[in-house]
Amino acid sequence: MPILSKDTTLCISLAGRPSNLGTRFHNHLYEELGLDFVYKAFTTSDIEGAIRGVRALGIRGCSVSMPFKSAVLPLVDEVEESASAIDAANTIVNTDGRLTAANTDVEAVEALLQRSGLPRDSRVLIQGSGSMAAAVTAAFRHAGFDSLTITARNAETGRALADRFGAEFTTDPGAGADVLVNVTPLGMAGPDAEALAFPESSIRAATRVFDVVALPVETPLIRAARAAGVPVLTGGEVHALQAAGQFERYTGVALTPDQVARASAFARAE
Protein backbone atom coordinates (compact mmCIF):
# COMPACT_ATOMS: atom_id res chain seq x y z
CA MET A 1 0.00 0.00 0.00
CA PRO A 2 1.56 3.34 -1.00
CA ILE A 3 1.98 6.07 1.60
CA LEU A 4 -1.04 8.38 1.52
CA SER A 5 -0.54 12.12 1.49
CA LYS A 6 -2.53 15.34 1.43
CA ASP A 7 -2.51 15.10 -2.38
CA THR A 8 -3.96 11.58 -2.57
CA THR A 9 -7.26 11.56 -4.47
CA LEU A 10 -10.14 9.85 -2.69
CA CYS A 11 -12.91 7.86 -4.38
CA ILE A 12 -15.66 6.12 -2.43
CA SER A 13 -18.69 3.90 -2.71
CA LEU A 14 -22.03 4.31 -0.96
CA ALA A 15 -24.16 1.20 -0.50
CA GLY A 16 -26.70 -0.21 1.90
CA ARG A 17 -24.62 -3.40 2.08
CA PRO A 18 -21.01 -2.53 1.17
CA SER A 19 -18.77 -5.25 -0.26
CA ASN A 20 -15.07 -5.37 -1.05
CA LEU A 21 -15.50 -5.94 -4.80
CA GLY A 22 -15.19 -2.31 -5.87
CA THR A 23 -12.61 -1.50 -3.22
CA ARG A 24 -10.29 -4.28 -4.34
CA PHE A 25 -10.91 -3.65 -8.06
CA HIS A 26 -10.04 0.06 -7.95
CA ASN A 27 -7.20 -0.10 -5.42
CA HIS A 28 -5.54 -2.95 -7.33
CA LEU A 29 -5.47 -0.81 -10.47
CA TYR A 30 -4.29 2.31 -8.64
CA GLU A 31 -1.31 0.33 -7.39
CA GLU A 32 -0.64 -1.38 -10.73
CA LEU A 33 -0.73 1.93 -12.62
CA GLY A 34 1.06 3.98 -9.96
CA LEU A 35 -1.86 6.36 -9.43
CA ASP A 36 -2.05 8.44 -6.23
CA PHE A 37 -5.66 7.44 -5.56
CA VAL A 38 -7.37 5.45 -2.82
CA TYR A 39 -10.87 3.91 -2.78
CA LYS A 40 -12.98 3.21 0.32
CA ALA A 41 -16.45 1.73 0.79
CA PHE A 42 -19.03 3.33 3.08
CA THR A 43 -22.66 3.05 4.06
CA THR A 44 -24.81 5.87 5.39
CA SER A 45 -28.20 6.71 6.86
CA ASP A 46 -27.88 10.28 5.55
CA ILE A 47 -27.48 10.23 1.77
CA GLU A 48 -27.95 14.00 1.45
CA GLY A 49 -25.19 14.60 3.98
CA ALA A 50 -22.94 12.07 2.26
CA ILE A 51 -23.30 13.75 -1.13
CA ARG A 52 -22.69 17.15 0.44
CA GLY A 53 -19.51 15.62 1.81
CA VAL A 54 -18.48 14.40 -1.65
CA ARG A 55 -18.81 17.95 -2.93
CA ALA A 56 -17.33 19.74 0.09
CA LEU A 57 -14.34 17.44 0.58
CA GLY A 58 -13.39 17.21 -3.07
CA ILE A 59 -13.99 13.45 -3.26
CA ARG A 60 -13.36 12.72 -6.92
CA GLY A 61 -15.63 9.76 -7.54
CA CYS A 62 -18.54 8.09 -5.80
CA SER A 63 -20.00 4.73 -6.75
CA VAL A 64 -23.67 4.45 -5.73
CA SER A 65 -25.50 1.18 -4.99
CA MET A 66 -28.90 0.29 -3.59
CA PRO A 67 -30.79 1.89 -1.97
CA PHE A 68 -29.33 5.24 -3.06
CA LYS A 69 -29.37 5.08 -6.87
CA SER A 70 -32.45 7.26 -7.34
CA ALA A 71 -32.11 9.34 -4.19
CA VAL A 72 -28.85 10.92 -5.40
CA LEU A 73 -30.26 12.37 -8.62
CA PRO A 74 -31.74 15.58 -7.08
CA LEU A 75 -28.48 16.12 -5.20
CA VAL A 76 -26.17 16.53 -8.21
CA ASP A 77 -25.69 19.27 -10.81
CA GLU A 78 -25.91 17.24 -14.02
CA VAL A 79 -27.46 13.88 -14.90
CA GLU A 80 -26.22 12.07 -18.00
CA GLU A 81 -28.70 10.31 -20.28
CA SER A 82 -27.59 6.87 -19.07
CA ALA A 83 -28.94 7.78 -15.61
CA SER A 84 -31.84 10.05 -16.54
CA ALA A 85 -33.32 7.38 -18.83
CA ILE A 86 -33.92 5.09 -15.86
CA ASP A 87 -34.02 7.60 -12.98
CA ALA A 88 -31.04 5.91 -11.32
CA ALA A 89 -27.31 6.58 -11.10
CA ASN A 90 -24.48 4.34 -10.01
CA THR A 91 -21.64 6.83 -10.56
CA ILE A 92 -20.98 10.41 -9.48
CA VAL A 93 -17.95 12.37 -10.71
CA ASN A 94 -16.86 15.54 -8.89
CA THR A 95 -15.14 18.07 -11.15
CA ASP A 96 -14.12 21.14 -9.14
CA GLY A 97 -17.25 20.91 -7.01
CA ARG A 98 -19.64 20.17 -9.88
CA LEU A 99 -21.27 16.74 -9.54
CA THR A 100 -22.27 14.70 -12.59
CA ALA A 101 -24.27 11.48 -12.30
CA ALA A 102 -24.14 8.61 -14.78
CA ASN A 103 -25.06 4.93 -14.94
CA THR A 104 -22.23 2.65 -16.03
CA ASP A 105 -24.45 -0.41 -15.38
CA VAL A 106 -26.44 0.45 -18.53
CA GLU A 107 -23.24 0.96 -20.50
CA ALA A 108 -21.72 -2.29 -19.20
CA VAL A 109 -24.74 -4.47 -19.98
CA GLU A 110 -25.09 -2.96 -23.45
CA ALA A 111 -21.38 -3.58 -24.16
CA LEU A 112 -21.75 -7.17 -22.97
CA LEU A 113 -24.76 -7.69 -25.22
CA GLN A 114 -22.99 -6.18 -28.22
CA ARG A 115 -20.17 -8.70 -27.97
CA SER A 116 -22.39 -11.65 -26.99
CA GLY A 117 -23.57 -12.44 -30.52
CA LEU A 118 -27.16 -12.83 -29.33
CA PRO A 119 -29.67 -12.53 -32.20
CA ARG A 120 -31.65 -9.32 -31.85
CA ASP A 121 -34.92 -11.19 -32.47
CA SER A 122 -34.40 -13.32 -29.34
CA ARG A 123 -37.30 -13.41 -26.89
CA VAL A 124 -35.99 -11.96 -23.62
CA LEU A 125 -37.54 -12.52 -20.18
CA ILE A 126 -36.19 -10.19 -17.47
CA GLN A 127 -37.02 -10.95 -13.85
CA GLY A 128 -36.92 -7.93 -11.54
CA SER A 129 -38.35 -4.43 -11.27
CA GLY A 130 -35.78 -2.34 -9.38
CA SER A 131 -33.23 0.17 -10.62
CA MET A 132 -30.83 -2.51 -11.88
CA ALA A 133 -33.69 -4.19 -13.76
CA ALA A 134 -34.38 -0.82 -15.38
CA ALA A 135 -30.71 -0.55 -16.35
CA VAL A 136 -30.74 -4.03 -17.89
CA THR A 137 -34.01 -3.40 -19.74
CA ALA A 138 -32.71 -0.09 -21.10
CA ALA A 139 -29.52 -1.81 -22.25
CA PHE A 140 -31.46 -4.51 -24.12
CA ARG A 141 -33.60 -1.83 -25.77
CA HIS A 142 -30.56 0.27 -26.73
CA ALA A 143 -28.87 -2.83 -28.14
CA GLY A 144 -31.81 -3.44 -30.49
CA PHE A 145 -33.81 -6.20 -28.77
CA ASP A 146 -37.53 -5.77 -29.49
CA SER A 147 -39.16 -8.77 -27.79
CA LEU A 148 -38.87 -8.00 -24.09
CA THR A 149 -41.02 -9.30 -21.23
CA ILE A 150 -40.74 -8.28 -17.58
CA THR A 151 -41.70 -10.59 -14.73
CA ALA A 152 -41.71 -9.49 -11.09
CA ARG A 153 -43.22 -10.46 -7.77
CA ASN A 154 -44.27 -6.83 -7.34
CA ALA A 155 -46.83 -6.52 -10.12
CA GLU A 156 -47.18 -2.74 -9.74
CA THR A 157 -43.49 -1.93 -10.20
CA GLY A 158 -43.10 -4.68 -12.78
CA ARG A 159 -45.89 -3.34 -14.98
CA ALA A 160 -44.56 0.20 -14.58
CA LEU A 161 -41.13 -0.92 -15.80
CA ALA A 162 -42.66 -2.82 -18.72
CA ASP A 163 -44.79 0.17 -19.72
CA ARG A 164 -41.79 2.49 -19.52
CA PHE A 165 -39.85 0.47 -22.08
CA GLY A 166 -42.73 -0.83 -24.20
CA ALA A 167 -42.28 -4.39 -22.92
CA GLU A 168 -44.80 -7.08 -22.02
CA PHE A 169 -45.48 -8.02 -18.41
CA THR A 170 -46.18 -11.39 -16.79
CA THR A 171 -46.31 -12.62 -13.22
CA ASP A 172 -45.04 -16.04 -14.35
CA PRO A 173 -41.22 -16.48 -14.21
CA GLY A 174 -41.75 -19.81 -15.97
CA ALA A 175 -43.23 -18.16 -19.05
CA GLY A 176 -40.16 -19.17 -21.04
CA ALA A 177 -37.97 -17.26 -23.48
CA ASP A 178 -34.81 -17.58 -25.52
CA VAL A 179 -32.87 -15.40 -23.07
CA LEU A 180 -33.52 -15.54 -19.31
CA VAL A 181 -32.23 -12.65 -17.21
CA ASN A 182 -32.23 -12.56 -13.41
CA VAL A 183 -32.04 -9.07 -11.89
CA THR A 184 -33.24 -9.96 -8.39
CA PRO A 185 -31.46 -10.99 -5.14
CA LEU A 186 -32.29 -14.65 -5.90
CA GLY A 187 -28.98 -16.48 -5.76
CA MET A 188 -27.13 -13.62 -4.07
CA ALA A 189 -25.06 -14.30 -0.97
CA GLY A 190 -27.45 -14.09 1.96
CA PRO A 191 -30.93 -15.49 2.70
CA ASP A 192 -31.72 -16.24 -0.99
CA ALA A 193 -28.35 -17.84 -1.78
CA GLU A 194 -29.82 -21.20 -2.83
CA ALA A 195 -32.86 -19.83 -4.68
CA LEU A 196 -33.23 -20.63 -8.38
CA ALA A 197 -34.55 -17.63 -10.29
CA PHE A 198 -36.25 -19.61 -13.09
CA PRO A 199 -37.70 -23.13 -13.37
CA GLU A 200 -35.27 -25.78 -14.60
CA SER A 201 -37.51 -26.51 -17.59
CA SER A 202 -37.23 -22.86 -18.72
CA ILE A 203 -33.45 -22.94 -18.24
CA ARG A 204 -33.08 -26.06 -20.37
CA ALA A 205 -35.20 -24.49 -23.14
CA ALA A 206 -33.23 -21.21 -23.21
CA THR A 207 -30.44 -20.33 -25.62
CA ARG A 208 -28.70 -18.01 -23.12
CA VAL A 209 -28.94 -17.39 -19.38
CA PHE A 210 -27.86 -14.09 -17.85
CA ASP A 211 -27.60 -13.56 -14.08
CA VAL A 212 -26.70 -10.03 -12.97
CA VAL A 213 -25.85 -11.17 -9.41
CA ALA A 214 -22.16 -10.43 -8.94
CA LEU A 215 -21.53 -12.08 -5.57
CA PRO A 216 -21.23 -14.96 -6.01
CA VAL A 217 -20.69 -15.26 -9.76
CA GLU A 218 -21.62 -18.95 -9.75
CA THR A 219 -25.23 -18.57 -8.63
CA PRO A 220 -27.69 -21.49 -8.64
CA LEU A 221 -29.04 -20.13 -11.94
CA ILE A 222 -25.60 -20.02 -13.57
CA ARG A 223 -24.76 -23.50 -12.26
CA ALA A 224 -28.07 -24.89 -13.57
CA ALA A 225 -27.50 -23.32 -16.98
CA ARG A 226 -23.98 -24.70 -17.22
CA ALA A 227 -25.25 -28.16 -16.23
CA ALA A 228 -27.84 -27.94 -19.01
CA GLY A 229 -25.22 -26.84 -21.55
CA VAL A 230 -26.75 -23.38 -21.94
CA PRO A 231 -24.23 -20.51 -22.51
CA VAL A 232 -24.20 -17.86 -19.77
CA LEU A 233 -23.50 -14.19 -19.13
CA THR A 234 -22.57 -13.44 -15.53
CA GLY A 235 -22.82 -10.66 -13.01
CA GLY A 236 -19.05 -10.83 -12.66
CA GLU A 237 -18.71 -9.67 -16.27
CA VAL A 238 -21.16 -6.83 -15.67
CA HIS A 239 -19.40 -5.71 -12.50
CA ALA A 240 -16.00 -5.67 -14.19
CA LEU A 241 -17.22 -3.59 -17.14
CA GLN A 242 -19.18 -1.11 -15.04
CA ALA A 243 -16.28 -0.69 -12.62
CA ALA A 244 -13.92 -0.10 -15.54
CA GLY A 245 -16.28 2.62 -16.78
CA GLN A 246 -16.19 4.26 -13.37
CA PHE A 247 -12.41 3.97 -13.17
CA GLU A 248 -12.00 5.77 -16.49
CA ARG A 249 -14.34 8.57 -15.42
CA TYR A 250 -12.54 9.05 -12.11
CA THR A 251 -8.95 8.84 -13.36
CA GLY A 252 -9.07 9.63 -17.08
CA VAL A 253 -7.22 6.34 -17.73
CA ALA A 254 -8.74 3.88 -20.22
CA LEU A 255 -8.15 0.26 -19.22
CA THR A 256 -7.19 -2.62 -21.46
CA PRO A 257 -9.25 -5.84 -21.38
CA ASP A 258 -6.32 -7.59 -19.68
CA GLN A 259 -6.19 -4.96 -16.94
CA VAL A 260 -9.94 -5.27 -16.36
CA ALA A 261 -9.68 -9.06 -16.21
CA ARG A 262 -6.78 -8.98 -13.72
CA ALA A 263 -8.52 -6.44 -11.49
CA SER A 264 -11.75 -8.43 -11.56
CA ALA A 265 -9.92 -11.64 -10.65
CA PHE A 266 -8.11 -9.86 -7.81
CA ALA A 267 -11.39 -8.40 -6.51
CA ARG A 268 -12.81 -11.92 -6.14
CA ALA A 269 -9.71 -13.61 -4.77
CA GLU A 270 -10.18 -12.76 -1.07
Overall shape: globular
Supply the CATH superfamily name of the largest domain: NAD(P)-binding Rossmann-like Domain
**How large is the radius of gyration?**
18 Å
CATH topology of the largest domain: Rossmann fold
- Helix amount, in percent? 25-40%
Secondary-structure map with pairings?
Layout: E1 9-14, H1 21-33, E2 37-42, H2 47-56, E3 61-64, E4 78-79, H3 81-84, E5 91-95, E6 98-102, H4 104-116, E7 124-127, H5 131-142, E8 148-151, H6 155-164, E9 168-170, E10 179-182, H7 200-205, E11 208-211, H8 220-227, E12 232-234, H9 235-251, H10 257-267
Parallel strand pairs: 1-2, 1-3, 4-6, 7-8, 7-10, 8-9, 10-11, 11-12
Antiparallel strand pairs: 3-5, 5-6
Helix pairs in contact: 1-10, 4-5, 4-9, 9-10
Characterization of the model:
With 270 residues, the protein is an alpha/beta fold. The chain folds into two domains: 125 residues, 3-Layer(aba) Sandwich (Rossmann fold); 130 residues, Rossmann fold (3-Layer(aba) Sandwich). The protein is 39% helix and 19% strand. It is built from ten helices and twelve strands. The strands form two sheets. The chain has a six-stranded mixed β-sheet, sandwiched between helices. The protein has a six-stranded parallel β-sheet with strand order 9-8-7-10-11-12, sandwiched between helices. Helix 7 links the parallel strand 10 and strand 11. Helix 4 crosses helix 5 and helix 4 packs across helix 9. The longest helix is centred in the C-terminal third of the chain and has 17 residues. It is globular and about 60 Å long. The two termini are 16 Å apart. The model has no long low-confidence stretch (mean pLDDT 96).
